[in-house]
Design goal:
Largest sheet: 3 strands, parallel
Number of strands: 12
Strand content: 5-15%
Mean pLDDT: 86
Strand order of the largest sheet: 4-1-5
Shape: globular
Helix content: 40-55%
């Protein structure tokens, strides 16, 4: 039914006094029963995580395929140029990958509706001299080859002839950011969303100044195709804007990382190495249905992994349980790390079970974490305020805007439970999400390094050191790209 509805809409749209143009591209998609997507392999668009494929553009593409009722065929690549070649040759129906809408791209391709906006920022390493403008830059700026960032610098150079910059053929934006963090290169120009993702892992990255603001990001289609598929995309993005699904997806990937705390990030990364190993077996043992790293992130937010932590409100221990919560969860000693972690996991599970079943993940999880902090009753009050505003009370990105209202008398006096530190609950959830993301990255990196060490050891046992060195030089042993 979906197929015929969309085809009918397109046919109606192209009716004129001339003969009806057949919706060729859309017909081809249905004929092959699949939509083919060229997608950039990057932390903000698509990558294979611990639980399988994920990413902002990936999830949008899955939703589009479901709307059309066809299979999703992915053609991932680390290189934008390779994706553009696939689009030019007709191998893919569109390309997605956080691509900025530039003048040159508008001339060569058909642009789908914008779904994100970003700034382009100049990044340097904290502790180095901060450049305030391009006139302060004496060393080359490195950017990925064939990126919109290179196009930006070519325009900037017209006003700043002394500016030096180079396109890197071998490194992508993530790798260039790591080189800035490591002090190997002085500067790079980068998408602000990608910077926010990477600052959780590379806290010394900092912004010198903005080069472009509020630049739209969109999918690209071939300009040789007819209007049929393009019309579907206009409808698709319009519906996602109206339903709030697009904002919810943006919040999922970027909503918790826009606020960056340099000192807190450094402290957390140090604590992962120094303190977490003592408690990791307990988090793994009592995680239950949760990822142990999520439980560990909550524990760090609560106590910085200190089993003797206490607060003025009477909560105690590594998971900072109240007396009543501890009794309910069967915890006899809140200062015992094992009991505290077990009790915290049980309490989080109870919060998840209290949430209406119609609320899907990950919103269900964010609601549960907020409830862990201030109680489900107060979260429910914020959901009531959200519904009164005509917004969706089942979406976290909507409810988190109303939670701070529970601190204002004109709002909380009309709620069932009254005053609550709603703003604190929002900050709490976003911190936990940041800590969780960082721990995922650190843990996966550690596992990769262990696998490589084991691989080298096996090669060494079989062929000796000479063979291992030969393999490394040939590139057969390599570290996977950051996800």
């Amino acid at each position: 039914m979906i197929r015929f509805g969309i085809l009918g809409a397109v046919l109606t749209a192209v009716v004129s006094c001339t003969p009806v143009q057949e919706p060729v591209q859309l017909h081809q998609i249905y004929q092959r029963d699949s939509i083919r997507v060229g997608i950039l392999n990057s932390p903000t668009s698509y990558y294979v995580g611990a639980d399988g494929p994920t990413g902002y553009d990936y999830e949008l593409s899955v939703a589009l395929a479901e709307k059309l009722g066809v299979e999703l065929e992915l053609f991932p690549s680390y290189q934008r140029e390779e994706l553009l070649q696939k689009l030019d040759s007709g191998q893919v129906d569109y390309i997605a990958g956080g691509l900025a809408v530039t003048e040159s791209r508008k001339q060569k391709y058909r642009i789908a509706p914008a779904y994100l906006w970003r700034n382009e920022v100049l990044v340097y390493r904290k502790g180095q001299k901060k450049p305030n403008s391009f006139t302060d830059i004496k060393e080359p700026i490195l950017v990925p080859k064939d990126s919109s960032l290179a196009e930006t610098l070519s325009v900037v150079q017209k006003d700043h002839p002394q500016l030096q910059w180079r396109e890197s053929e071998s490194e992508d934006a993530d790798e260039l950011l790591q080189q800035v963090e490591d002090g190997k290169i002085p500067y790079t120009l980068v998408d602000s969303n990608l910077l926010a993702v990477n600052q959780r892992f590379f806290p010394n990255l900092t912004v010198a100044f903005k080069v472009k603001e509020q630049q739209p990001v969109a999918w690209l289609l071939s300009n040789k195709a007819d209007d049929s598929f393009w019309a579907v995309l206009i409808e698709f993005f319009g519906q996602n804007y109206q339903s709030g699904d697009l904002l919810s997806l943006e919040d999922k990937y970027f909503g918790h990382i826009r606020r960056f705390d340099y000192i807190a990030t450094l402290d957390y990364i140090k604590a992962i190495e120094k303190d977490l190993p003592r408690y990791q077996p307990l988090f793994e043992k009592y995680a239950g249905n949760f990822d142990w790293r999520l439980l560990a992130a909550i524990g760090y937010q609560e106590s910085n992994w200190r089993p003797d932590a206490r607060s003025s409100t009477g909560v105690v221990g590594l998971m900072m349980l109240t007396v009543s919560t501890a009794q309910t969860m069967g915890v006899s000693s809140r200062l015992d790390p094992a009991q505290s972690i077990r009790g915290g996991a049980r309490y989080l599970q109870r919060m998840v079970e209290r949430i209406p079943e119609r609320i899907q993940m990950p919103d269900r999880l964010w609601f549960a974490i907020a409830a862990y902090n201030i109680g489900w009753g107060h979260v429910e009050s914020a959901r009531v305020l959200t519904e009164r505003d005509g917004a969706n009370p089942d979406q976290w990105h909507e409810v988190k805007q109303r939670l701070p209202l529970l601190q204002q008398k004109r709002y909380y006096q009309n709620t069932k439970l009254g005053y609550a530190r709603g703003a604190q609950a929002v900050y709490y959830v976003e911190n936990v999400r940041r800590f969780y993301d960082t721990l995922l990255w650190v843990d996966e990196k550690k596992k990769t390094e262990q696998r490589l060490d084991q691989q080298k050891q096996r090669l060494n046992e079989q062929f000796g050191d000479k063979a291992v060195n030969s393999e490394e030089k040939s590139g057969n042993i390599s570290t996977p790209k950051q996800s």
